[in-house]
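Exercise 4. Each item below gives a protein and its sequence. For each, produce the structure-token representation.

Item: Diguanylate cyclase (GGDEF) domain-containing protein (Peptoanaerobacter stomatis).
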Amino acid sequence: MFAMRYKYIKKGEIVIDTYLNFDNELEIYKDTFNLTDQFIAILDNQMSIKVANKAMLDLIHDEAVNIYDTPYWELPLWSHSIELQNRIMFSIESIYLGEEVKFEATYPDINDNIKNVEVTIKPVYSDDGDIIALVAMGYDTTSAKEAEKKFYTTQKQLATFFEMGVDGFLISNLEKPVNISTLDPDESFIIAYNEETIVNYNSAVNDILELNAENLCLGSLFKKADVDFDTIKKHWFSMIKNGYVRFMIKFQSKRRHTKYVEFTMVPVIEQNMYSGSYSTIKDITLDKQNEERLFLMANFDYLTGVCNRRYFIDSVNDVLKNNTNPMCMVMFDIDHFKSVNDNYGHDTGDIVLRTVSNTINTSISSDGLFARMGGEEFAAIIYKDMDETIKIIENVLSDIRKLNINVDNSILKTSISAGITKIKPGESFDHFLKRADSALYEAKRNGRDRYSIQ
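Answer:
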């Protein structure tokens, strides 16, 4: 039976009320749910929708759609953005770490007008501390977004929606404005850096930056991220020149993970007198983490952790465009690898692939770029001439021979063969790849555990 600790909802928080059994007692609370304009949905611990209030159902405005038992990320509201669906789906990881998840999105209303919504998903705990349900609460933030567009005009307009969004807003002020048309630019910046002070901000600023922004000067705002003086100076000059600047900082959060924050700053200038700036601050950590996750999935081999064939080819071609130094191409193949799979099983084969791959990658280190091309075949570009490359490959073969791979309390030995070729100026990737591949098979024909050169 699906049961949870019911929590009545006030904007911005959840307070424990009483024990609620969905099957029998939720009807009592439906009227209360339906009186609010918030878009409320109760989800199970797999994010499937179990209960939705009237505002949520009206938001869908499609009677043919049955949203119950549908994963929250598959709602028609989010179907226009695969990126948003993925973000909601991945957010369950954060929720199970005890975090609440917030995101913003757009949706078409019944008249096809584009509206904005801000959604918070919070965990609901049992008496034992287990997450047994989730509460998704949405707010129509269309008016706030429209107000945000006018943010850059006056401080008065900004104050009307300071606390409405998930982003941070702040205003910094220079008590004695400087004339940027007559004063030396470097001197103008130093005055702003040391004397421009934050005079107004919302609570999200402190939450995102994990500091107390009250009365901070402009220079102190970035100390947590160790942004150097020259970088801040470059951003400030860009803001003055272009009318705004957008940049990213990163720092270690209190939870000891990397936090990414995007700043957008707009100067306040009247008759060449600079008197401060408006800033928006956005936590883009989840976006960066998803970008990094997708980058790794697209460009690195899931089993060995080294780059894959596509990334390797693209990287080599990029290196060749801007490099006239001698370089060599090397192909590797694990000797008798099929017999490892046949005799010990594919799990052992995977261990051999990871161990050999890690050993070669470590041996080559910064002298080249190493990749898994597929199966038991690997490749490397070495940023050295042929003599130096041969020394590196001899060390690689020696390191592989020394490996003792522990399999079911026994030691498995292995070896590799390698084919080396010099990359000629202006030569295409396919040409020197075929030559290295031919050299590799020559080494295998000559007895394996050796290299050959073509």
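Check: Residues 234 and 391 are 45 Å apart (CA to CA).
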